[in-house]
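fold-stage: in
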Amino acid sequence: MAEIPTTQKQYRLQHFEGTHGLTLFPSEPVETPQRKQVLVRLHAASLNFRDILISRGQFGSFSFPPGLIPLSDGAGQVVALGDEVTSFQIGDRVCGTFFETWQDGPITPDNVSRALGATVPGVLAQYRVFEESALIKFPSHLSYEQASTLPCAAVTAWSALNENGVKAGPGETVLIIGTGGVSLFGLQFAVRAGCQVMVLSSSDEKLKLAQSLGASFLINYKKHPDWEIKVREITNGKGVDHVLEVGGEGTLNRSLDAVRLGGHVHIIGVLAKSAGTCSGFGEKVLYSSVQMRGIYIGSRGVFERMNKSIEINEIKPVVDRVFDFENVKEAFEYLASGKHFGKVVIRID
């Protein structure tokens, strides 16, 4: 293995006004791992819509200090070990977990306070030191670019359909809203579980691609603006068992009309703005006995369980485009454009 350099390249957000604040620092120190820590040479990182919001200073009520290293999702190779590390060896291929301290069980405020690319430095760098407990080996059939898509998007989709007492399975119907990273992982996981999957998009081209991944029903919401009615027609008036809800207030009311009595609405994103369509949803939740859950990624334990399924089923993440490290701003702009189908990845090395 090549000698570890003393300096590295990394990106930082110097201010939060979009890509204008992204600055490449060409000669930052490479840290030495301490007790129970691991140094990883990062080879790829992937973008989530959260990263766009953070770069614009629009991530809820959160504020971040200038100099933040962005991005939560990366994959690389272990190149050095601190004392007392027992779970990894030099050469292992690994991902970091989205929340550094969330091992398993319910999420805690401490877990939330340790989120990569937000409250702690992210992965848009050539090297990063991780706590041993904040790393996980990724499935052997995946490339670094593919593995970099797992920590947020894949874990979120898996958590929605397979955790906390939920287990989507044969004979059930799943409505997937959109064709971004979380949505396509949800599609792949649901298909492998034997579910019938409907996909909602404004693009016929993207719907055809979703069909190639196993979607049974395709709905263009530009052609069917009252798409919840179409969902009811397809299910003979019953409604779907699960909705992966990425729109938030802009689509939630329609999702509640599309789900069956006692079904599940998994809120995994807030991409769509309200146009006065969210009124009355409380009554719909009550009288439909709908189970609504907010999915805030998942723990390291969830990540491990998901990886086993990905390995067994040889699932491959859908990567739309890969950008070079020098073209990070273009990657951000491409994701923000909404043209992507699946994940947008940055090749670091």
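fold-stage: in (second)
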Amino acid sequence: MSSSPASQFGPNEWLVEEMYEQFLEDPSSVDAAWHDFFADYKPTQQSAESANGQRPAQPSPSQPASTQQPGSDQQTAAQQSGSARQSAPERESAPAQPAPAQPAQPAAAQPPPAPSNAGSTPAAGSTAKPAQQGDAARAQANGAPTTQRTQPPTTAPSGATTDEKPSEDGEQRKPLRGPAAAIAKNMDASLSLPTATSVRAVPAKLMADNRIVINNHLKRTRGGKVSFTHLIGYALVRALRDFPNMNRHYDLIDNKAHAVTPEHVNLGIAIDMKGKDGGRTLVVAAIKNCENMTFLQFWQAYEDIIRKARSGSLTMDDFSGTTISLTNPGGIGTNHSVPRLQQGQGAIIGVGAMEYPAHFQGTSEQALVEMGVSKIITLTSTYDHRIIQGAESGEFLKRIHGLLLGEDRFYDDIFTSLRLPYEPVRWVQDIPEGAVDKTARVIELIDAYRMRGHLMADTDPLNYRQRRHEDLDVLSHGLTLWDLDREFAVCGFAGQERMKLRDVLGVLRDSYCRTVGTEYTHILDPDERRWLQERVEIPHEKPAGSVQKYILSKLNAAEAFETFLQTKYVGQKRFS
């Protein structure tokens, strides 16, 4: 385990080091919450060297070379090199004085100076180099006085940068500094973790259909949008209730191995951010204490973390305490990945791209719909094999799989949290076309909405409840979620001859089941019913801004008139 103060931030250690450099240059450029942390903060030696562009000090190769090569000349050179190093501090502390004359020695007896690495000297520019010592020895042999010469420092100052230097074979070599060096350090540290990975493919059909229903409702009401990562992340948190061991991590306490179970679930979200120079950096910010959140609370906390990351306003608390992470490389088309597990965590869950199976990717969209082929996503669980076994990781992914298919009222809880007045789409197997006449069932469904659609209208703004009627359920008519993208003959419904079942349901709910209930089938005159149908059964279109302002002005006028009546005629009976 790393002893660096920044190690508590896991993969965000590079960002802490970068912010510390900004703090040293201008404390006001860093959020005030970091000032106390940076007041006594000391970067690790490797971080400081990478920031300065220096290489870590290595042992001098001269001493091993002298012990491996036989011969008195090499031994004599090593001894004189060692004595020169021992006398160097004495010469530094004393002023330069003329050296006494020494008897001349033959040039052949003078051993060559032993090579020395600059990293093994106490300080650059303060200790004489072997070549300088050889010159001084020869000058002393000739009886000439010598003085200690100091060389200017050869190390670049902190923050200085050096250009890329081509090697002998033409390669461009550029030292890693700052965030890149810190990320490399974290990756090296992650190699010490014995990890394994479980993989599972999950059909995404139900998740996609329910997401469409949710976002259509949000578009009409409060606004916002729910992504697939929101749903998968919430399923992950729900699955941890049944598999709390996936939230543990390994640690050494008093040199003894421990499996540490945190008090809360802090879900880390990996956020890919583009830098000003076009480079990409990765930060992991945690949603704290999310084990008992409703979906609405989880969604809001997730969006808050993303907003703070994009605006650069993440705090120290957001970076620390992550217990399990979620990464979604599928957003950039990656089928599935095996991410690196960081110290302090027991597992990281990866989400792959949502695609049709590879052997169906050349099939037409219509053929896929007719065959009932769903897109899939690939989930991976990379875990610490010291405390989590493969069977437990596999069962954990199986639990997430079941939740995404609607087990344990998963989507019902989401719909209730967001106050959707309808039931979610259910996962069922497809019914072959030959088993039922689906076109006739679609016509029956349209007639059922015309007669009883008003019973599902959301006409009570004060009390929330999910509305359901057996005659308005597609399952009652022998239709399933696999039929939503199939086209059927609708005999002029909404001015169309053929429509997808998804579009048919959209028009029916907009016409009969929103905030106004409509029922006219009791009218006996066919022309009057047809006249109402043509004006009611139309796709929903948001009114123009001028129309909305006009309606608002009328509502304000009505409210002002109600207030006038209430104050002018107190206690009087009125019918408004």
